[in-house]
Amino acid sequence: MLEQESQSVEDVKVAGSNAAAVICRGVVKDFGTGAAQARVLHGIDLEIQCGQRTFLVGPSGCGKTTLVSLIAGLLTPTSGQVCVLGEDLQGLSPRALVEFRSRYVGFVFQQFNLIPALTVVENAAVPLIVQGVPFSVALKTAGEILIRLGMGRYLSHSPQQLSGGQQQRVAIARSLVHDPRILICDEPTASLDAQSGLAVMDLLTEIATSPERAVIIVTHDNRIFSYADRTVSLLDGRIESIRLPGEQMHS
Ligand SMILES: Nc1ncnc2c1ncn2[C@@H]1O[C@H](COP(=O)(O)OP(=O)(O)O)[C@@H](O)[C@H]1O
Ligand SMILES: [Mg+2]
After folding, report:
1. What is the 176 CA–ligand 2 centroid distance (Å)?
2. Which domains does the chain have, with CATH numbers?
3. How far is the CA of 140 from the centre of ligand 2 (A)?
4. What is the DSSP string of 127-186?
């Protein structure tokens, strides 16, 4: 037990580029208890490789956000196993899990979760500051990513001064700033116009072409389906199909 508690991310030997980025085995997730208990995921078996963009699609309420939250270690499964970069997340102590996430996982939330008291560039720099990177270096790195996302004019703005689409780009910059191996985006283009949506996808594409990284994108947005290397369809908490690019849906 003591050993478990003192386990830090230094002890976590993550897998290299030839291993699976994510392996889910028999993942079940229930919410609530007693009569109110509901099964949201019914035994998900899924492997996601590094170097790929995997899209997760399906109707509202089918369990997409729940599944990516389990992969990110933000939720724990009721049963089954979630391995990320070769690490069984349930085997990590709570503290090691937080460290693992802050080092290896980037997450763009459906709600952007920006901090109102911080400027745009400070918001994007948060993951680096948390890791102890010097403030000026963190701001410089965050600024460069924001510029690539077309947000260079807004670095000193407050998030409240931005449109929804602009806030989304700040959230995307924040998810990328610490160079995560696993990048999870929950509806990343939902509030973007067509041009900004494609710019975001080009950036995500560039990231995913690294053989060490995996990008997982939850989306309804058929404008971006062509960016998928693999499309996983969920229906009522089960995998309905897994398609490769030649077999894309067209609506
Ligand atoms: N924290 C929670 N407590 C209870 N039910 C939840 C919770 N989170 C999600 N759900 C339910 O789980 C189902 C799947 O939700 P979610 O994963 O958010 O779906 P999606 O992202 O595909 O729209 C929905 O019926 C939702 O109401
Ligand atoms: Mg969702």
Report:
1. 20
2. 2-243 (3.40.50.300)
3. 32
4. HHHHTT--HHHHHHHHHHHHHHTT-GGGTTS-GGGS-HHHHHHHHHHHHHTT--SEEEEE
